[in-house]
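@channel anyone free to eyeball this complex?
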Amino acid sequence: MRAIGWIALNVFRESVRDKVLYNLVLFAVLLIGASYFIGQLTAGQDVKIIKDLGLAATSIFGLFIAVFIGIGLVSKEVEKRSVYSLLAKPIERYQLLLGKYLGLVLTLAVNLSVMAGALYAVLAAMIWVGGSEIARALERPAVDPFLLEALALTFVELAVVTALALFFSTFSTPILAAAFTFGLFIAGRFSADLRDFKQVVDAPLAGFLAQALYWVLPNLAPYDIRAQVVHGQPVTAGYLALVTGYGVLYVAALLLAAVFIFSRRDFK
Amino acid sequence: MWARAAGRFTLVALLIGAAAELQWLRERRYPLAPPSEDAPYLLSGLTTRRLAVGYAALAADLYWIRAIQYYGGTKIRLGAPSQEAQPEAGRQGSAYPALYPLLDLTTTLDPRFNIAYRFGAIFLAEPFPGGAGRPDHAIALLQKGLGARPDKWEYMQDIGFVHYWWRRDYRAAAEWFERASRVPGAPWFLRSLAATTLAEGGDRQSSRIMWTSILQSAEIDWLRREAERRLLQLMAMDETDMLQKVIDRVAAQSGRPVADWESVSRAGAPLDPSGAPYEIRDGRIGVSRKSILFPLPEEPQRLGTPAP
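replying in thread with the prediction:
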């Protein structure tokens, strides 16, 4: 357990060294710049749009980090041949994989937390500058704690995407792993289409296959509650728990499969 | 080392400056084509939703920004509503052809985008040049909003309002006010408004109640300003009625129609609620063409009254 923790910490340090967290600066500039320009363009909807933009940007930035760092977690070690010295130490292969995964998830958590802080700071500043006139026109308070629900589900979604990237990186090249991960991310966002496929085709076999894919592929659409939260629509604790539970189980399945493949891989 | 860095920086700045100079020369010699008619490239909200890959709310924001920029830009291009005469029936419905598709896309991408429905209710229905002159589109958009949020009495009130104010269909208006009044949380006045509209048709007091309600619930400046303007118009209609009586009395006493304010009052022309002087044209009082209240709306018709 301690070995996993050390590996995770090292992955986090490495991502800091690789200037991954520089995206936070870009995020802050994007939000601050947008809050100024959008105020001139949107006829009073600036707080709503900053919320939408902030939540979407946390997801998009996180997605790129999860995919592009995730696909290199294993393949980079293999390419640099540092995997030999790592495996020569008293570390099990599963510990290496879990440590790598948790390290990237820690990076994402830190990233997401700072982004959430920046989003709240920009929203508070907008109300402070704009005064009660802006606040009056809002369906929800600008500094709305319920935004955290959307951010929490974004985090779980990114944890699933990270597990996908890690899984593919255990047996394929980085480019292919990125393509597979992005492909499954998009398929996961459109999973409802797979579910309803048999209603649009008159081929029972195709319908059955689509149904099977619907249950097997990661379903990422339920993690998008951004619009509901921004409009102040209630999201129940039960829903959050079920969606989070699904994510945890799916991550566990992917990590298990990744460990299985990685443990059988021959590095000679 | 610093000197070398400064030298490189200067070189880069010079190159960019030279490129900008060339661009300026090119644009002067070959002027850019004027911006083409703004039109949505994608008309299907469902296709756009797919292309947004889960970021539909953000895409809705972009379309909302486009919608209001389009409306504002077109309105400026056409001229302010107070500057032009209203009856340009030939151009009605063609003034803002992209407004409905843009609002439709916005609300397909984000079906809870409250302000897009309410903005559409006013500016799709309003005749040229202030709006698209399409009450049918306004109603379609609001009904789509009701599909997404069936508990929104505001949309029902707005549908009733479009029937009342733009279509003069008081029976339909009363039905929608009645329906809105049944939604929990709806304001008390909707029930009496429904009854009055059904029994008597239109009147200024009912119009005033509706515009005041829109003013109080307006989330954006444009709606607020439009509601304020409409309330001032109703006030101006009351004032012109009063002034007309005075003018008629003076005309009856002198035996000839009143041609100017000097023959009525030494103080000169009284001002309308926006601050512009009232005008006398052919013995009739009216707001000036320069007033933001011009032209005054048609008088709401009481049931059983022949249309003018």
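from a first look: Residues 64 and 196 of chain B are 36 Å apart (CA to CA).
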